[in-house]
Structures are given as structure tokens and as C-alpha cells.
Model the fold of this input.
Amino acid sequence: PVPAVPCSPRHDVAEVAGLTSFSFGDDEDSRYVMVFKKEFAPSDEELEAYRRGEEWDPARAEERRRLRELAAQQEEAELECSPTPPGPPNDYKDKYRHLIGSDAAKAAARTMEANKAYGCVPVANKRDTRSIEEAMNEIRAKKRLRQAEDE
Done:
């Protein structure tokens, strides 16, 4: 749960005082605000209990937490002892080892060098020799022409 956004004077006062405030209740008649010190702000489980209209019981919450942990441990144990999912019996690299070799990737990584001129293209290699302004003016002219044809 996310803390209520300060939308009433009570929330504003709590925020100015350095406190945390939460709104509870469904309609305007049953709506109320609970204020807590920031260091003693309620847990998510406690807020959920308040939102359901229940009284917060730390002992019951601890029991629920313990049961959830136990269920998670049991699920983890079941996953460990369950059979492995079907998959390929071997790695594809083993199948093609005679073609690519075992150190092909390492050798390629060693010989690869960084391109120091990355992003710098010689003028001779450029296809479009117009300046940005010229290109933008041409685009605008085409757009005006299209609009004139549509009208």
C-alpha cells in the first residue's frame, strides 16, 4: 500500500509536523485518518488490516508470516526434488566445436580493437552533402506543397 497523498488539511498538518498519515474507510461518512510518527510507521500488513476494518494483532501477523515462510520453504524443497525440465541433452557449442573451435570467441575478443573514430564519418563517405538547414528547408517546402495540394 502506498501512503495516502495529502489531500486534506489533516494530511497537510501531519506532513508539516513530520508525521506519516494514512486514510481509511470507503465513503466520506466513514473516512478517517490515522497519524503515526515516521519511525513507528505501520507495516504493510498492519495497514491492510486497518483497511479491512480489522484490529491489528501482531501475534496473528507473526503467525501468518511464519506460515508463509514455511510454505515458501516447502515449495522450494518441492522444486529441488522435482525432475529437471526437458531440454537439449548437450550444448550446441559441443555439436559445432569442430567448426568453430573451443577458443574462437576468446581469440576474436582479443583481436577486436575499439574504433577510436566512432561517429566520425569522412565527408567523402557521406551520401547527403546538404547542411541541416538546407535539409530542414527542403522538408518544410515539401510539407507546404502537400498542404497546398490538399486544400
In short: The two ends are 55 Å apart (CA to CA). Residues 7-81 form a domain with the Ribosomal Protein S8; Chain: A, domain 1 fold (CATH 3.30.1370). The first helix runs from residue 9 to 16.
